[in-house]
Design goal:
14% strand, alpha+beta, seven-stranded mixed β-sheet, 22 helices, globular, five-stranded antiparallel β-sheet
Length: 827
Amino acid sequence: MGGSDPVAAVLDRIPFDGPVPPLPDPAERVRLREAFGWTVTQMGQANGVRRETVWTWESDPPRTPRGEKGQRYARILAYFAAELARTGTLECSVNPDEPEPQPELLSDEAAADAPPPELESEIEDPPERSWPDPRPVPVSMETPEPEFDAPESWTALPEGVTRPCVRCGQPASSVVSGQPRHVYLQAMAAMGMPRCGPRPTVPAAPSSAPRTEAEAPAATVTATTPAAPGPASVAAAPPAPLPAAPRRPATAPSSPRKRAKKPASKPVPPEYADGPLAVLDITDGTLTAHLVDGRTLPCPARTLQSLAAWALDKKKIRLGAAKLHDNGFDQDPLVVLTEGAVAHFGLPTDLADQEELRLPAEDKVVKNLTKAGWELTKSGFGPWPRIFKRVDGKRHCVQLALVPWGALESRAWGKARDLSADELAAMLGTYARLVVTPRGTLAVTGEELMTALRPPTKAEWSEKQNKYVSAKVPDTLQSVVEPAPCEAPDEHPVVAADYPEEGSRPASEALDEEACIWVRPAELITDDERSRTHVAALDVQVAFLAACRRLHVGTGPAIHYPRNPDFDPKLPGSWYLDLSHVETDKRLPSPFTSSGERPEGPGWYATPTVAYAVELGADVRPMEAWVRETHSPYLQPWYDTLRNAYLAVMAELKVTQDLDDEAFLAAMAKYKDRDPLLVTLTNAIKATAKSGIGKLRQRPNLGVDHVFGDPWPALKRVTWRPDIRAMILSKARTNMHRKMHNLATTSGRYPLAVNNDCVVYAVDGTSPLPLLLGPDGEPIPGGFRLGVNPGSVKHQGSQTIDWALELLTDGVNIANEIKGESLVRVA
């Protein structure tokens, strides 16, 4: 049964009266739809809803469709089940002869005149964001086939040409009743040959002939074995593997530890089969897109507006990535421009304005973009421009990164600017798979990763409005909140109102939770320490990230308790109290200040600092507090994502969690000599964590005509939360002090200097292993542990005791100097 509307042809067969069958569970809904050959788009068309709505019906837990649409959906699924049970084959299949609809959205001309579809029930679109609906796969319903094919009922395709069989998906060289499939004759049955079965839900590998759009992607391509260049639709590649040398079996440790778990790879949606990003470069005079799996494609774009259209046109290239959370958005495609690509589009290879780092609004390139209907964000056209077009009130966006303009900062990405296009695509693709598609600097990416993993809103069914509405998600940052005065920096309006002169606020009125930088006075160095031969430094692995683990932070506004509140360690916030009376050993830094010096009077402290004072036996009596009674471990998924990414890359560099101490030290001493792309990735992941935390308290750019006391753009973000940053740094500093305190009380070893996450001790020999063991030769409870996991330590370096004493006499922080001066290889 043919027809111009194959979905309507199916619906004509379904009785929509009588008893309503029950809805199957979500997995069965997916199975029935896929076995029958329908896409989510076609299911949405049949029910008068968007494909996103169908996804929610098939999710777990599902969104139960209600009313007439729910009844209609149940009848359609019941029909699918009955037909599949009756025939045992897939009666509904791809028709390769169906004409391909042309994309309306992403041509250079605006498509705002297109009438919006009439949808009665759908999830509300997120503000100014959406994705183009992929072209529905045309289907046709056939009347019941005879058991055998007549000898002259089929025609052969030209020699060497095949098409996927509509029954089994394997290459077929014949067309039966207008559809490609294998012929089944009575003689074949007599010989005991089985009829080919239903099309598998995972498509078979494509044939050598160019794939039509109706065929599903299947071939698996890895970065280490790149496929031959071809159309983007030739293969649906899984996420790019780590660009490293072949793996070797882990060496059996002498004392086994927990083995690192690799992040589970999620299936890649067909609409993103070409990966999250492409790197453009000039190859043999042609603009070429290098994909994360090693393939290359020609890019026909000559202007930036045509480049944006090409990057978002699913018929030409399928860029992008799935959302990180069910309540979030899919990830915008990223197109990286090398120096050759920048010149190709008529852009300067080096920005003349190094202060603004963006093109002026009157530049010809910017004007041409806006003239073609494209828009830029308020950041303008800089190293990370975001280009978008609004169609039917929805926003379709592509992210660019201009390598010659410093998009990949050298402090984290190293010499990425000097990499070849395919190496750059492999490295960035691996970062995108393990973390997220880069969206700007690593600080921006780290901050946006937080909301991508914890979206503040979700679609929720409203009985009153009879549709899905946007609802707030508990335990997330849902709105912009004012900081408490003690938490805000001096430039913030809430502080400047009382202290209009810069630097006029008393130190006791500001929350000063920072990492510790401290040097022990030379007169407090003991004779025993002076008699040692060397000093060794321990560095905490990704210390600030480790502090995020299970840390409860405030998600709502701060509540002021002005008079003598009782301290509650479960409430995140800031407490005003006097800790100057707490006695601590002078050979240890004070745990209450970033300078390591004993506080001189009352001051503001974050909850972890006060809780640690209680742990040390102090009598704490807050005089005032700003606390948040709504709180959650908001950063836990952020911590898990970055931790897993870091461990996965380090495992490829042969530094795993199952190594004993000696093997770990040896592996760390050599890992930087291995794959340089992976070494760069470790730096980028660590920088994402550190700078993402810094972004929580982003201060104004004083070089852009900022007036002291005026608000700045960062204050409009829900993730501008200096209180959360203070909680993290407080936790990191007290975690480190606890280990130093336990080492001191157990083995009598005291630090000579501390610099953020690095601590230096006097020791005999260059090895740090004696620092980890107590007098009984066993690991010190609550002390430092060697390991790759965040919060464990590595050897930062060693030097002679004479070198250390000379610098300490001059008050130099040797924890900051030892890495560059170390006698041994450091990681």
